[in-house]
Write a structure and sequence with these properties.
about 325 residues, Rossmann fold, about 40% helix, homodimer
């Protein structure tokens, strides 16, 4: 089963931080619209496909292409979006993550973890595999804060071709000073880190992984946001193998340190061999130039589809076809 | 997978109609508390176990006993409860059913059906079996209205030992006159019947059944409320086999016409051979005297557990044990 956790954090509205919306006002619609694109093929909460500020389309198209080709089941879990998706979703009663420069980020981190655990246990009883994905604008910055608080020095990735690293580091500095935490000061307290400076997706995703029965394979589908979830799990004492599936755009992102952080965490990484360099749509071929990179579990959806016998080429063609229908 | 749909209708607050609460004010808590009892073992939204006006416990104890013994997965779907359960649930964005003597009962009947279909399709991809249960106080009366509108003459069951038939018939008369419908006037328009005089559970449950892939066995877990869902399906053109699993208390209810309606609808009925006559708890042994009878998919949960190799005796003992922990 492919589980898409849609969530939000106030960090997503800081100008220049998140590329998951054409502008900061559009960001609130991105995650619910991604759920709709994945499951129904088009956004319902807004008229247009979610795009970044330069018009590149949401990676939900990749996840949808994999879903259509492979026929795996999807389930949407809402963890703190401002607006609900119009498709059915599992409600966790999370609030959007607060800006950790001004307050506790996720007051209900512990209860969200418990709810994730309950769901993970039930769903894993009859699934071979749970692929856990996210759509949470601003999530690489909450990932950075959690990684820093837990003592990891590497840089997270970005949906911009030029990673706004100074801005992210500035947020962490302000968070550190407001929350009274410092590099590594929350070691061994993964959920405390989420509570103080993370986002609600991290709590729910971590709980899902912990709750899943050992006979069910669990895949964290995402880039550095899922490395942050892995870090939370490790610092909650989770010592089973962890597997993150992402795209080659994230793994090859020279501004980030995916391999290094993964190695420190004892996490195996799969890198989906996507290639849109021959696409006739600039919106897609620009993925090769560092735009968008990952999201909505695109890399994990490719992994899942491959496992079910679908070649990556088939998915790439399907993405082209889907995108064509959105083009003017 | 055992799917519990929790819902509501304003009919549940008419004095004397529903036994799913110690009094009409308590009725709003019953369905969410049932979800909590099933999944967590105790209510969280209120302090005490849901009981009928004479103190008999919710049949959620039976469903929970089967869940614990058989280890099947559960999922809660919310379809119009006033209050949300505190456990995770799938949100369908249904409003509580309106009193059909004063307005359309379920304005969003068609979209709820679609949402049920979407969920049924996804979940059935990796499940051998979907057991669809309900907790909806007042639901036998909305069931009666739907059956009448679709042209079925039999009487529905009741959680009271003395079925308040005159009151239910009076409601139908008033509904008939307010809605401008009569016996059989909505034949061939199952969802129209739900829209006009049913409840939101009926729409979601029917959609789940229609959406499920043919290779997945579907079981409607409930008494005459699930016969109403079956009628809706038949009048929406559904012609695959239908299977209703309920308790012997419902099947043996002389005030109702379970077998007759089932036969007219071409529905196979399973009757769970529960027996609390030897229970030392009057709350349970009174089930043999016609109190409570069914709910929270108790009969279907027994069917499911039996299918997974658990004898009914084991479930009965477990119910005793669970109830003991709630007794003063």
């Amino acid at each position: 089963m492919f589980i898409l956790i849609v969530g939000g954090t106030e960090l997503g509205t800081i100008p220049g931080l998140s590329a998951a919306g054409s502008n900061p006002e559009a960001v609130a619609y991105t995650a619910p619209a991604d759920a709709e694109v994945l499951w129904k093929g088009k956004p319902q909460i807004i008229d247009a496909l979610p795009v970044d500020p330069e018009g590149h389309p949401t990676p939900a198209l990749i996840s949808r292409a994999a879903y259509l080709e492979a026929g795996f089941p999807v389930l949407i879990v809402r963890a703190g979006t401002l607006l609900p998706p119009t498709v059915p979703y599992v409600e966790t009663a999370a609030s959007p993550g607060r800006d950790p420069r001004r307050g506790k980020a996720v007051e209900e981190a512990f209860s969200l973890w418990e709810k994730g655990k309950m769901l993970g246990e039930e769903l894993s009883k009859t699934q071979n595999c749970l692929v856990i994905a996210e759509s949470l604008p601003g999530g690489t910055t909450s990932a950075l804060c959690v990684l820093r608080a837990l003592g990891y020095n590497g840089m997270v990735s970005s949906a911009f071709p030029h990673n706004p690293i100074p801005l992210k580091e500035k947020v962490w500095q302000e968070v550190s000073s407001f929350q009274g935490i410092s590099y590594g000061s929350l070691k061994g307290a993964g959920l405390k880190a989420v509570e103080s400076c993370g986002d609600p997706m991290q709590a729910v995703a971590g709980g899902l992984v912990e709750g899943a029965l050992p006979e069910c394979q669990v895949v964290l589908a995402g880039g550095t946001q899922m490395l942050a979830v892995s870090a939370v799990l490790r610092h909650q004492g989770y010592n089973r193998p962890l597997f993150v599936a992402t795209t080659r755009y994230v793994v090859e992102d020279k501004s980030a340190h995916v391999k290094e952080i993964a190695q420190e965490l004892g996490v195996e990484v799969y890198s989906a061999p996507l290639d849109f360099s021959h696409s006739s749509f600039p919106g897609l071929s620009d993925y090769e130039r560092g735009f968008v990179k990952e999201g909505v579990g695109a890399g994990g959806a490719v992994w899942y589809a491959e496992k079910l016998g679908i070649p990556v080429k088939t998915i790439i063609s399907r993405v082209e076809e889907l995108y064509k229908n959105f083009s003017p």
